[in-house]
Structure formats: C-alpha cells, structure tokens
Design a protein that fits this description.
- The protein is of the alpha/beta class.
- The protein has two domains: about 150 residues, HAD superfamily/HAD-like (Rossmann fold), CATH 3.40.50.1000; about 130 residues, Hypothetical Protein, Haloacid Dehalogenase-like Hydrolase, Chain: A, domain 2 (2-Layer Sandwich).
- The chain has eleven helices and 14 strands.
- Strands 8-7-6-9-11-10 form a six-stranded mixed β-sheet, sandwiched between helices. A five-stranded parallel β-sheet has the order 2-1-12-13-14.
- Helix 1 runs parallel beside helix 11 and helix 3 runs antiparallel to helix 6.
Length: about 300
Amino acid sequence: MPPRYSLLAIDLDGTLLDKDGRVSARNLQALLQARAAGITTVICTGRGLVESAHIMSAIDQRDPVVVAGGAIIADPLTRRTIHRFAINQALVARAVDRLLAHKHPALVLKDPAEAGYDYLVVRGHERLTLDPVTQWWFDKLQVRTRTVDHLGDDEHPEHTVRVGACGLSDALARMKLDLAEACAGKACVHHFPAVIGQEHAARIPRGQSLHILELFDIGATKWSAISVIAKQMNIDPARIAAIGDEINDESMIKGAGLGIAMANAVPTVRDAANRHTTSNNEDGVAHAIEHILSSNW
C-alpha cells in the first residue's frame, strides 16, 4: 500500500538536528526510507541556503528546499532559486530605520543566486558592530556579506527577502513590537532563540537568551513555500505532512494534512499539531516517519 502522504516537510534546528546540530543515524535512515517509499522530502528551515548547505549534503538532499523561513525555494544541488518572496522596498527601509534606532545593525538577507552574496549588513552612521555570535556564525558557515553605512548603498534592493537582527531576548521582544506596529498588516514579524556555541551561551546574562528577529513579506511563510512546491507537483495539501518545533513552523503545521509537533516544540506549535513525536534529541523525526510509513498516522 502506498503511503498516505506524498510530501514531507521537515524543519532543521530543533527538529531534524539534535542539540549538537547533527542528524542522527536513525533520522537519516528514516529519511532514506521515506524517499524509497516515494515521499518527496522537503527541508524547511529558517537558515539561508549557505547556512544549511553542509546539512543538505550530509542527507543527500535532492528535492527542493525551503530556506530563509519560507522566503526562498531553492535547488540544493545547483543552488538555483526556484521561487522567492521579495519584500517591498519601502518596508525594508522602514524596518532598517527602526533596527538602527534600537542600536542594532540590520541584517538584510538577499537572494544569493541574484545578488552574489548572502547578507547586506547595514550599520548606520554610527557604524554599529555585529554581535560576536552573528560574526561567529558568519565565519563558521562562510556566509558572504557586504557592509554599508546606509541602505541607499544597496545595489540589489529588489533581491531582499528578509530583514533581521540578533540580540538579547528582552531587547528583541521590544523591537518586534516596534516593527510589528510600523509594518502592521504588511509584514510577518517574529523572534525565537538563536543557534549558538557553548562558549557564547556562557556569556548570556541570567534570565535571558540570544534571539533572532526576522521580518518577511506578509505572504512569505514556510507553508506558502510548501504550497508552491505542492502545486507544481500536483500534490493535494491533505497529502502533506509537516514536522517542526518553533514559531516559524506554525504555518506549515496548521496547513498540512498532518501537522506533527516535536516534544520540544513551543506551545503554539504543540497546540496546532495533529500529532506529537519525541524530541529532537530522541530521534523525533524518525519516530514520526516510522508512524507515517506504517500507516499508524
């Protein structure tokens, strides 16, 4: 009997990846089994393509991938952009101005296939510096950046897909409210914990965590991107399963025929899910795939 689901959308951090950022042997084997059963496996991550390339290689990803939180659909082999949700340039300018007013350099994510680099870092007239974690992340994953003082120096404004910042959770919560007010009804804004190294975690003030703040076009979500892929492949939404844990996974958990929350998922994702699996440190993706392939789910 063929599987009930034709497309499986899987988040990376907190879902397919364990706490050390690795894909377990059991999760990898389950992915291979899903593919062998004819299920299209689509990785859906908040990371940019370059930031997840080593993981795509490790799992031999060949199906399209959703990166940048849903703003870009890309071919993981050629790195060609298949589809993107660009942000209105007036919204970008408004968001960058607000971030600079909060003394945070703006991280303007580009479509790298068109711009030729990944992030435009706008530091403002005060020449604000990147926080150490962001710099570590860029260096570790060989992220290509271009730094300017003013957004007006952007040579590729039409290729912007996200505006963001990285900082302490309390500050970013205030910045989220500010951005949401400034871009009401015209953008999607959220923030969530960042992936950091142990050496950085030890320096975070007690009671706080390091967060990422992101602003997208109102139509750019993981579910929007999955829907584009499904339409191209003539797959009914009822035949889509999605697995995730964080706030940027909520749209695909709600939209999919089968929404699966990790045991470590945030409350809104747990509440939206049809099913719940084990945590990312307990091979939760494999557990879910095994239930899907056995037709229990």
